[in-house]
Specification:
- The chain is built from 8 helices and 54 strands.
- By secondary structure, the chain is mainly beta.
- The chain has a 25-stranded antiparallel beta sheet that branches. A 5-stranded mixed beta sheet has the order 9-14-15-12-13.
- The N and C termini lie far apart (about 75 Å).
- The relative contact order is 0.10.
Length: about 900
């Protein structure tokens, strides 16, 4: 009996102790609220003198006895957070996003999405990923690791990359730097050569797919890409980096940040220099990058002055070529079964010599030797540009509830691209497939004009430069007001004025001393022009923009939502300095045209005189607006769902307002209309994170660009495609699995179904703006081209020992339909483009391909100096693939068969390597 009683007492005591001394745990990930980067070494304190720190992946775990606790998360340079928890024999997951104390302006102006709060699909590239995987590529290329993105380097020139999101080209993807829009105000494009070196000062890159959560009225049909640069760090730091890569590539970089100085000052500086020969033949590159940021804190005010720029020049490969030009065996495997004579027709004198030139082949260069014996290698296609950006920022933290940001910015672009003035016909192509500059040079030296016997030789052929300078000034004023714990109101003003100056100038006379301008009817046709003189065209494109935006955010408990309303009024104007112009004195007409000079009553007058009005168009104003909103609900600490939808009325690009080379407005100028809806789900835990979403986007009245087509032997027509409608639907997914503390796997999946849904007509005009004919097209059911509609990818990162990492990434692209000219889908002119049922034939689908990249690195410290040695191999298995293609490309083939035979292509770049050493102290 006593034994049984003793047993019962022991059991009861054990049960009581289990209840009284029960325990559970709390775990999670601590991340940067803006970049999403895991934070290492965060202090998590749960009792006086007791706590843990987050590991290299930002992970933490605490075993706790039953009871209530207050967790305090603190990290140098970040705002501390507290979390109340209750442990009752349970395991809790608490993920924390810490905000940097210097990032108030980024939150106000940067329009960055927040995990589990902002109801949009987005991906974030962290500084660690940039350091480890960029490997001297352009920034868009690293974004292929995010779903829905297709980025290529096109012809292979350094700085010529482009990005496509959800099937929408780069001029329909909003790109911002620290919240400022940088898409060209005329054509919406982003020239990445202008932003070389930006990776040095990038804190994070966030890509929001779809209409996104930006407050501004932006062309974010496909998505928004926001590059956030580093602010003033808490500690002084100096970095030096040396990179070595393929084909003579060298890059040297230096960065310095002062930390917080006395008196509220802070300075950040970065500079870089690069040069290389280019993977593609003669796509040389040379460029500088500079960045200077000075901050001053005055009480509740912060004043910041920033200057950045990247003067550069690089060789280009501008035009696609037939597949057989690069590799005839590969072309044959794709169904190209004609002989070179049949394939190229009259494009070359010796078609047989124009096959198997290799993947690096670039036809846009040549050589010649001067009379003095100097051998000159010359690029026909060269880009040179400098686009400095200056910003003056003022941030006023009036209170805990009200913030005001004002940004005044100025962009000054200067540069252009070169090309031969006359088209290079087959007689001036060498057996090696290069431009025969020697023959041009020799002809120029003996080409004397009898009317100018003392002027030296006249250039028959020369290089021209198409200059595209601009002056762009803007003001972005944004306020943020926290009404109460649930509502936050923000809004502001977006003002811009852009003047693009476009002209052609004589760049290199190739041995001659002058040329005659015989094409511009408004000049004296006997004018002798030398290098630097303007020819052919000279006009200004002016775009003015006035926008208002507002956004109301709501957050209570697990639910958050926003509604955004923006409006913009866009004005267009064109000034033609070569158009006929009257020079009058009173009612007397002295001259009509450019460069005319006359004497009247003993005084000299000419049409270049200051104060005279140039020929110019009237202002054309177009309104536009966006209405969008969405909601997010956190189902638990780990999962959430979201939905967003929107409607955009988008004003057209400048090129879709005016006829080419005239001041005439195009007919039927209308806005584009975009309707979109998106649903998504996310799950996030210490081990596994997962995001998926689906989208449905309707694009109505999508315009094309004016494209030249031959009307007859003498006339060229320019047309503008209007009224193309398209439907973009798809599903996207990405995930991360942290198998071990030192082993992580990530993956992505994206599949789209993007098709045109309309048919329309195009009015054709000749060079004299005389109506010639009307063309029809029917693109219903044809896939939207120029991007892969299927994308699969996976990455692995492993640290076998501390500070040594090995990583690899594999990406599969499929269902890339070639870009195409809609006029090739005319049932009357191209009946072969339609099947027996009258439906249009789809654009040629290129073969699928797989790219594999490998990265490794090791870091070590010698006292207070840190060394990071990294190496990367891109396209490890030297995959042969087509990155860009155009269906029925008239510049590459004489056939219209919608297959490999008729396509013009860019082949993807082969295997490359990059090695870097960074020293930090």
């Amino acid at each position: 009996m006593a034994s049984r009683l003793k047993t019962i007492i022991i059991v009861l005591l054990c049960l009581y102790s289990l209840n009284f001394f029960g325990q559970g745990s709390v775990e999670g990930v601590v991340s940067d609220a803006i970049s999403g980067e895991s934070l290492i070494g965060v202090n998590i304190v749960y009792a006086l003198g007791k706590g843990v720190i987050s590991d290299i992946n930002g992970l933490y775990k605490i075993e706790l006895e039953n009871g209530s606790y207050t967790l305090t998360f603190s990290y140098v340079g970040y705002i501390s957070q507290t979390k109340e928890i209750n442990i009752n024999n349970n395991n809790i997951t608490i993920n924390v996003d810490l905000k940097n104390i210097t990032l108030s302006e980024v939150e106000i102006v940067g329009d960055l999405a927040r995990s589990r709060e902002t109801p949009v699909a987005f991906s974030t590239i962290t500084p660690v990923q940039l350091d480890e995987e960029l490997a001297s590529q352009e920034i868009p290329m690293i974004l292929n690791s995010t779903p829905g993105v297709y980025a290529t380097q096109q012809g292979g020139g350094d700085g010529d990359a482009r990005i496509n999101i959800r099937g929408f080209s780069q001029n329909n993807v909003a790109v911002m730097i620290d919240g400022l829009p940088v898409n060209d105000m005329e054509n919406g494009w982003v020239y990445w050569s202008n932003w070389f070196g930006l990776d040095l000062v990038t804190q994070t890159i966030q890509v929001q797919r779809g209409l996104g959560a930006s407050k501004l009225a932006l062309p974010s049909v496909g998505g928004t890409m926001n590059i956030i640069t580093s602010g003033i760090k808490q500690k002084q730091k100096i970095k030096f980096k040396q990179e070595v890569g393929d084909k003579g590539y060298l890059r040297t970089s230096l960065g310095y940040t002062s930390g917080q100085l006395k008196g509220g000052w802070g300075i950040t500086f970065a500079g870089s220099y690069k040069r290389g020969n280019g993977w593609v033949d003669r796509t040389f590159t040379e460029g500088w990058f500079y960045y200077l940021k000075v901050d001053k804190k005055l009480g509740k005010h912060i004043i910041s002055l920033t200057a950045m720029g990247a003067p550069q020049e690089h060789g280009q490969r501008r035009y696609r070529k037939p597949i057989a030009t690069f590799d005839s065996a590969y072309a044959s495997s794709l169904g190209v079964n004609k002989t070179p004579d049949e394939y190229f027709n009259t494009l070359y004198l010796d078609p047989v010599s124009m096959v198997d030139k290799g993947l690096r082949y670039n036809p846009d260069w040549g050589k010649y030797t001067t009379n003095s014996g100097e051998e000159i290698t010359l690029n026909d296609k060269k880009n040179y540009y400098h686009k400095p950006l200056f910003t003056l920022r003022h941030l006023w933290s009036a209170s805990d509830k009200f913030y005001l940001s004002n940004i005044l910015y100025l962009s000054l672009g200067n540069g252009g691209g070169t090309a031969t003035k006359r088209s290079v016909n087959p007689t001036y192509i060498t057996e090696d497939g290069q431009i025969n500059f020697q023959e041009y040079y020799d002809i120029n030296l003996i080409n004397f004009d009898p009317e100018y016997p003392d002027s030296g030789p006249k250039s028959y052929q020369f290089l021209r430069s198409n200059k595209n300078n601009h002056n762009w000034i803007g003001l972005l004023s944004t306020f943020n007001y926290k009404i109460n714990d649930e509502f936050t109101l923000s809004g502001g003003l977006d003002l811009r004025r852009y003047v693009g100056s476009h002209y052609e100038e004589v760049y290199d006379l190739l041995g001659g001393t002058y040329m005659l301008d015989t094409r511009n009817s408004n000049r004296n046709p006997k004018d002798q022009l030398i290098e630097g003189d303007k020819i052919n065209y000279y006009n200004d494109a002016i775009v003015e923009w006035a926008g208002l935006f507002s956004q109301l955010e709501y957050k209570i408990g697990n639910f958050s939502a926003f509604i955004n309303l923006t409006g913009a009024y866009t004005g267009y104007k064109k000034i033609d300095y070569f158009a006929p112009k009257e020079l009058k004195v009173g009612d007397t007409v002295l001259a009509i045209g450019y460069g005319k000079e006359v004497e009247y009553n003993g005084q000299i007058y000419d049409t270049n005189s200051p104060g005279l009005d140039w020929a110019q168009s009237e202002w054309k104003w177009m309104p536009g607006f966006t209405v969008k909103g969405g909601g997010n609900y956190n189902l638990s600490e780990r999962s959430n769902i979201f939905v967003n939808l929107g409607y955009m009325s988008k004003a057209p690009l400048f090129r879709n307002v005016y006829e080419r080379n005239t001041l005439n407005l195009l007919g039927n100028i209308e806005n584009e209309f975009i309707k979109a809806i998106e649903l998504g789900y996310s799950y996030r835990s210490r081990i596994f994170s997962f995001n998926t979403n689906t989208y449905y986007t309707v694009w109505e009245n999508k315009p094309g660009r004016q494209v030249p087509i031959p009307l007859d032997d003498e006339n060229i027509g320019y047309f503008n495609i209007q009224g193309m409608d398209a439907l973009h639907i798809g599903v996207e997914l990405d995930f991360v699995v942290k198998i071990l503390d030192n082993l992580k796997i990530d993956g992505l999946f994206s599949i789209g179904n993007w098709k045109y849904t309309s048919a329309d007509s195009v009015r054709i005009y000749d060079d004299n703006n005389v109506y010639k004919q009307t063309e029809f097209f029917n693109a219903k059911g044809v896939h939207v081209g120029d991007a892969a509609q299927t994308q699969l990818g996976a990455g692995l990162r492993y640290e076998p020992i501390k500070k040594l990492y090995l990583s690899g990434r594999i990406t599969f692209f499929d269902r890339y339909y070639s870009d195409f000219n809609p006029l090739n889908l005319d049932p009357e002119r191209f009946p072969e483009s339609f099947d027996e049922n009258g439906n249009p034939v789809d654009a040629w689908k290129t073969p699928s391909y797989i790219l594999v990249d490998f990265h490794t690195g090791y870091s070590w410290n010698i006292k207070k100096v840190r060394f990071d040695l990294r190496a990367s191999v891109l396209n490890v298995f030297n995959e042969l693939y087509i990155s860009d293609a155009r269906d029925n490309d008239s510049f590459s083939s004489t056939t219209t068969s919608h297959d490999a035979m008729s396509a013009g292509v860019y082949m993807g770049l082969g295997r490359r390597f990059n090695i870097s050493l960074m020293i930090s102290l």
